[in-house]
Design brief:
The complex is a heterodimer of chains A (117) and B (209).
Chain A: H1 4-13, E1 27-36, E2 39-53, E3 60-67, E4 70-77, E5 83-90
Antiparallel strand pairs in A: 1-2, 1-5, 2-3, 3-4
Chain B: E1 3-15, E2 21-29, E3 32-38, H1 40-43, E4 47-54, H2 62-70, E5 76-82, E6 96-97, E7 107-113, E8 118-120, H3 122-126, E9 165-167, E10 171-183, E11 188-192, E12 202-207
Antiparallel strand pairs in B: 1-2, 1-12, 2-11, 3-4, 3-6, 4-5, 7-10, 7-12, 8-9, 10-11
The chains are: A mainly beta (117), B mainly beta (209).
């Protein structure tokens, strides 16, 4: 459990971003700002969220995608100033908070059912 | 004045101006009370003694009660002596010192007692490499220390030979930690990097001057 002082400091030190709500199993597009010398451009990274880890200022999420037949996982801090915005493309039905079993699955087995409201 | 006594709160991370994620430690530093001023004439050296963190009166010995009463303060848990002074910043008996002695961006040294790790082998304790290979006929000596010395001379193990044993729980000083942020109202300072000990352990914070 985090102490009150810790909570206070984290609120003061890290600017909270208003990202949409998403969890493991959702497909998201992360628009990430990349600085190259003096120029700045936005790179988008789309994949399935396989976990959200940590709390408050140190919270991160992992996005997995298959790129050229090879699985790629990228970890983003939720409050990173480089994240321009996050778009939720699809909400998935999964039974656990960390869907690491996805790493062993490919093709049709790796499909995640879409949640319909 | 060159320092304060603090308490480790825990670690977190912040983003700096360029967006880099920096690991940081929160320290509750002070307010501390000067409970004794040692002088060259009387004690043979110059120093001041600081006290930090309240404790119950019933858990305090009469001798210490008297000591705190002289400084006009309540009983404290930790007493530490600070010898490094800055010229013209001598403190008087009973004075209260808080985080205003530090400023953002400066570098401090933080010392405390490291986490106890129990009985550990030489790989963890002294950074030995262990035995290189897992194959080529090698088995069950992967983290062994190897030879302890020559044979007929000296016919003994040299004093101070690095071996397995109790690890951690020692005084460790981290030098040149940058103060990233100060919250004066909460007596909180944020330093870059890690500091020794578990959360809630006491630390001595000194300015290198």
């Amino acid at each position: 459990m985090k102490s009150e002082l810790m909570q206070f400091a984290e609120e003061q030190l890290v600017e909270k971003k208003n990202h949409p709500d998403f969890k493991a199993g959702d497909t998201v597009t992360v628009n990430y700002r990349i600085v190259e010398g003096a120029k700045e451009r936005i790179q988008s990274y789309q994949g399935v969220v396989i976990q959200r880890a940590g709390t408050a200022a140190t919270e991160t999420f992992t996005v997995r995608k298959i790129s050229g037949g090879i699985g790629v996982e990228r970890i983003f801090p939720v409050n990173s100033p480089f994240i321009d915005n996050i778009v939720v493309n699809k909400r998935g039905v999964v039974r656990r908070a960390r869907i690491f079993y996805q790493r062993a699955l490919t093709g049709k087995k790796a499909r995640i059912k879409e949640r319909r409201n | 004045m060159s320092g304060l006594i603090g308490k480790k709160i825990g670690m977190t991370s912040i983003f700096d101006a360029s967006g880099k994620n920096i690991p940081c430690t929160l320290i509750q530093a002070g307010p501390c009370v000067v409970t004794q001023v040692k002088t060259m004439e009387k004690d043979g050296y110059d120093a001041i003694q600081l006290a930090f963190d309240d404790k119950k009166e019933k858990n305090t010995t009469n001798a210490l009660k008297g000591h705190f009463k002289k400084a006009n303060t309540s009983p404290k848990r930790v007493l530490r002596e600070f010898t490094r002074f800055e010229v013209g910043a001598r403190k008087s008996h009973g004075e209260v010192i808080d985080v205003s002695v530090f400023f953002e961006g400066e570098y401090v040294d933080v010392s405390g007692v490291s986490k106890g790790k129990g009985f550990q082998g030489v790989v963890k304790r002294h950074n030995f490499g262990g035995v290189g290979d897992r194959s080529h006929g090698q088995h069950n000596r992967l983290r062994a220390p190897g030879s302890l010395g020559a044979s007929s001379w000296p016919s003994r193990v040299m004093k101070g030979m690095k071996m397995a044993g109790r690890t951690g729980g020692q005084k460790v000083k981290m030098i040149n930690l940058q103060i990233v942020k100060i919250f004066p109202e909460e007596n909180l300072i944020v330093v870059k990097g890690s500091v020794p000990g578990h959360n809630g352990s006491y630390l001595k914070i000194e300015r290198w001057s």
